[in-house]
């Protein structure tokens, strides 16, 4: 007993008792479970196979000190992120090792074993419920279709590629200008989907003629348009590039989709398109309008009249390229400081697989002309996220790693919005997906606006670009 590592289990439910039984039945683990803590008052003092529930969350510090606990296991698979963060903070401050059982989805799949205990991850602190995969519905939607994904090597594009590949399309056409990203994606998908026909295309969405040729050659049924410049401060410095890539790149892909008879065109949008205060957000709001405009137009060049244009808007995704989480991680690895823009800064987050799953669901139910808005849950304070990531690295914020406040960057909001006050959200049969009925600006002015903004971008008139955005009502 003296040489055994003393362990405390948080959660006296099914997951906690399952972990305890495995420890008890395997003496080779060399662990001694001192007890459980659980916030259910009915469980206090209850004996579970010889081990008692000895307290609640408020007793955690006292129990760790009194019993010289070496390790804490968080065994509450459905716990909200803020609750997990509280346990992590206490354990970190007490210099105690902490691990967590898998979340609900993994338990359902039979993975809630002692061997599956893992380190707490950022996703656990986010605490978002697992999205149920509509395997049957999405398989019916995608099976037998040719699917083109732009920006396929990016965070969202590559996850869409993985998920769509599993639903047995006839073929995948993966388009990106980033050759290294496409190379890595090709290696991965070839390994896991060796029988699937996949075409990899190196191209820029700004090359109108090449995009036209690609659609003429492959004739996809569905297009998922994820290609875009997304870095707010950089696009503030180079608004002409945001215009050329985000607006006219989208227009190139969308018009080719309409011309060559694509059934559905799905635009991946962003919460920065809600009440934009920066150029990047303004360009994305314009692209949402382009979809609505084309959805209502009929031209002689079209192969059919049925192209349905759909936009899906959501916030930040965890661990995407260039996002705050990999930046924080690198700063922590380098010994700090971790840089936070403002103490009050908040953002909405969801995981990359969840975002891709909801995009596919929205695409499957879209009839054309909709702007789907994804439920992003509660906003997360960036300071809390930074502190939590430091703790997850086994360090103490402000002690081992400094946090430095650097002020807002160009074009940033303190708090993002998913939809503007002008927009009225309507529920759909999918609980996490809503429809916005507003365009955010007068779409009838788009054709003239596009002519002017293109000239301004080509002449590098950055002030003129911002003024034109303000005139059409997409930039404050």
What does this structure look like?
The chain is an alpha/beta fold. Residues 104-115 have low confidence and may be disordered. The chain has 2 domains: 5-120, NAD(P)-binding Rossmann-like Domain (Rossmann fold, 3-Layer(aba) Sandwich), CATH 3.40.50; 135-334 and 355-378 and 410-444 and 452-458, 3-Layer(aba) Sandwich (Rossmann fold). It contains 17 helices and 21 strands.
Please give the structural blueprint.
Layout: E1 5-10, H1 14-24, E2 31-37, E3 47-48, E4 51-55, H2 60-67, E5 71-74, H3 81-93, E6 97-100, H4 104-108, H5 122-126, H6 135-142, E7 146-150, H7 155-166, E8 171-176, H8 179-192, E9 197-202, H9 208-218, E10 222-225, H10 232-237, H11 239-259, E11 264-268, H12 279-296, E12 308-313, E13 316-317, H13 324-333, E14 338-340, E15 346-347, E16 349-350, H14 352-365, E17 371-374, E18 380-381, H15 382-392, E19 403-405, E20 425-427, E21 433-436, H16 446-458, H17 462-472
Parallel strand pairs: 1-2, 1-5, 2-4, 5-6, 7-8, 7-10, 8-9, 10-11, 11-12, 12-17, 13-16, 14-19
Antiparallel strand pairs: 3-4, 15-18, 17-21, 20-21
Helix pairs in contact: 7-14, 9-11, 11-12, 11-16, 13-15, 16-17
What key phrases describe this protein's structure?
about 475 residues; alpha/beta; Rossmann fold; 9-stranded mixed beta sheet; 6-stranded mixed beta sheet; globular
Number of strands: 21
Taken together, the total number of domains comes to 2
**What general outline do the C-alpha atoms trace?**
globular
Overall helicity = 40-55%
Cross-sheet strand order for the largest sheet: 9-8-7-10-11-12-17-21-20
User: For the report, how would you describe the main beta sheet?
Assistant: 9 strands, mixed
Highest-level CATH class of the largest domain: Alpha Beta
Termini distance?
A: 67 Å
CATH homologous superfamily annotation of the largest domain = NAD(P)-binding Rossmann-like Domain
Low-confidence runs (pLDDT<50, min 5 residues)? 104-115
- Which fold does the CATH topology of the largest domain refer to? Rossmann fold
Derived from helix and strand composition plus strand pairing, the structural class reads: alpha/beta
């Amino acid at each position: 007993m003296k040489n055994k590592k003393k362990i405390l289990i948080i959660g006296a439910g099914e997951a906690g008792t399952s972990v305890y039984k495995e420890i008890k039945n395997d003496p080779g683990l060399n662990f001694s479970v001192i007890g459980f803590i659980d916030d259910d008052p009915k469980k206090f003092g209850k004996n579970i196979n010889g081990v008692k529930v000895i307290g609640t969350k408020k007793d955690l510090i006292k129990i760790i000190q009194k019993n010289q606990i070496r390790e804490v296991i968080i065994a509450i698979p459905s716990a909200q992120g803020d609750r997990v963060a509280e346990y992590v903070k206490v354990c970190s401050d007490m210099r105690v090792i902490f691990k967590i059982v898998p979340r609900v989805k993994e338990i359902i799949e039979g993975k809630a074993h002692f061997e599956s205990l893992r380190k707490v991850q950022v996703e656990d602190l986010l605490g978002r419920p697992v999205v149920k995969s509509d395997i049957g519905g999405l398989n019916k939607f995608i099976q037998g279709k040719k699917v083109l994904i732009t920006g396929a090597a990016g965070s969202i594009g590559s996850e869409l590629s993985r998920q769509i590949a599993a639903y047995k399309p006839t073929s995948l056409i993966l388009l990106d200008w980033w050759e290294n990203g496409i190379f890595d994606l090709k290696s991965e998908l070839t390994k896991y989907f060796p029988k699937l026909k996949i075409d990899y295309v190196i191209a820029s969405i700004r090359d109108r003629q090449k995009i036209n040729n690609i659609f003429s050659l492959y004739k996809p049924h569905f297009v998922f348009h994820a290609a875009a410049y997304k870095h707010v401060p950089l696009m503030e410095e180079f608004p002409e590039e945001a215009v050329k890539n985000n607006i006219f790149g989208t227009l190139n892909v969308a018009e080719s989709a309409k011309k060559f008879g694509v059934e559905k065109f799905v635009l991946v949008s962003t919460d920065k398109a809600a009440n934009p205060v920066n150029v990047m957000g303004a360009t994305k709001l314009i692209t949402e309008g382009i979809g609505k405009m084309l959805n209502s137009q009929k031209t002689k060049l079209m192969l059919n009249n049925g192209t349905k244009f759909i936009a899906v808007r959501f916030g930040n995704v965890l661990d995407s390229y260039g996002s705050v989480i990999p930046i924080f991680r690198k700063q922590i690895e380098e010994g700090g400081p971790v840089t936070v823009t403002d103490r009050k800064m908040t953002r909405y987050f969801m995981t990359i697989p969840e975002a891709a799953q909801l995009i596919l669901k929205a695409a499957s139910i879209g009839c054309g002309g909709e702007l789907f808005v994804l439920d992003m849950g509660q906003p997360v304070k960036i300071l809390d996220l930074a502190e939590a990531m430091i703790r997850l690295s086994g360090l103490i914020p402000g002690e081992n790693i400094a946090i430095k406040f650097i002020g807002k960057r160009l074009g940033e909001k303190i708090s993002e919005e998913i939809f503007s006050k002008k927009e009225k959200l309507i529920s759909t049969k999918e609980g996490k997906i809503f429809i916005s009925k507003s365009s955010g600006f007068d779409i009838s002015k788009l054709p003239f606006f596009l002519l002017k903004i293109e000239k301004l971008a080509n002449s590098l008139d950055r002030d003129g670009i911002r003024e034109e955005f303000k005139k059409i009502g997409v930039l404050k």
